[in-house]
Amino acid sequence: MTRHYENLSVDLRDVLLWVRIDRPRSRNALSRRTLAELGTAFARHAEDAAIKAVVLTGAGEAAFAAGGDLKELVTLRSAEDAGELFDLATQAIDAIRRFPVPVVAALNGVALGGGAELAVACDFRVAAAHAHIGYIQGRLNISSGFGGGTDLMRLLGPVRGLSLALNAEDLDAHQAHAVGLIDEIVQHGETLEQCIERFLRPVLRHTPDVIRAFKAMALAERLGETHERRRQIERDWFVKTWPSAEHWQAIEARTKKHS
After folding, report:
1. How many angstroms separate the CA atoms of 139 and 34, rounded?
2. DSSP the chain
3. Do 162 and 46 fall into the same domain?
4. What is the pTM of this model?
5. Are 78 and 163 members of one domain?
């Protein structure tokens, strides 16, 4: 099933949801409408219990998302405009951050500025060999505007994150992998889609509830929930998954194997 938006295409393939930014002529730049559509698309599918993972990518091979749409954003000049943009973008991208199953950013090309923030908002990043990623906002004399600075510092730690942001570096896939921004790179002779399939294969073996359980724990850590709240989330999911038919089928199969 494929659903088309003005700037996105959303395709549900069995248990995998593909969300593609479809603005190749603009290098998949993140306009306000594009950001809003991303928020809508993720919110719409958040309750779909069959989905095990989401892949977020861009159309074409040049760009995942080459930052904010400067042709549109150049009209926003005041501090009030900036605050409204930040609030719109973070609210939309929070739907990705808080999605109940893992979201993989498939970097088919450059992810720069706001595009890098979008990628780092996801749980994992898989990259084509020619992909680049960079927090280059400092080159335009601005800071991160989509909540991605917080994500960067959490992911890399304050020292490495600060260094990367202040250097405004545009890293190739291998450099990004070395510092921890990229989790997997397409291997020789492999397509990006094949790499994603390989990367997600261990994840997709699990039941939807097991996937949701561990994503909930990761999200609680990401959001800085209290120790008590994180422990309660873990308990709740354990109590839910323990009596499941899938658990006891696995126990029975393992017992037979070792008997």
Report:
1. 23
2. -EEE-SSEEEEEETTEEEEEE--GGGTT-B-HHHHHHHHHHHHHHTT-TT--EEEEEESSSSEEE-SB-HHHHTT--SHHHHHHHHHHHHHHHHHHHT-SS-EEEEESSEEETHHHHHHHHSSEEEE-TT-EEE--GGGGT----SSHHHHHHHHH-HHHHHHHHHHT--EEHHHHHHHTS-SEEPPTT--HHHHHHHHHHHHHTS-HHHHHHHHHHHHHHHTT--HHHHHHHHHHHHHHHTT-HHHHHHHHHHHHHT-
3. yes
4. 0.93
5. yes
Enclosing domain of residue 174: 2-204
Q: What is the pLDDT of residues 6-43, one digit of tens each?
A: 999 999 999 999 999 999 999 999 999 999 999 999 99
20 plus 89 within the same structural domain: yes
Final residue of a structural domain among 204, 220, 240: 204
Whether 104 contacts 56, CB under 8 Å: yes
99-125: per-residue pLDDT in tens? 999 999 999 999 999 999 999 999 999
Token representation of residue 53: 């993972």
pLDDT means over runs of 10, the chain (259 residues): 85 96 93 95 95 97 88 82 89 96 98 97 98 95 92 96 95 97 96 97 96 97 96 96 92 81
**Amino acid present at 22:** D
Q: What is the spatial distance between Cα 130 and Cα 111, in angstroms, rounded to a whole number?
A: 11
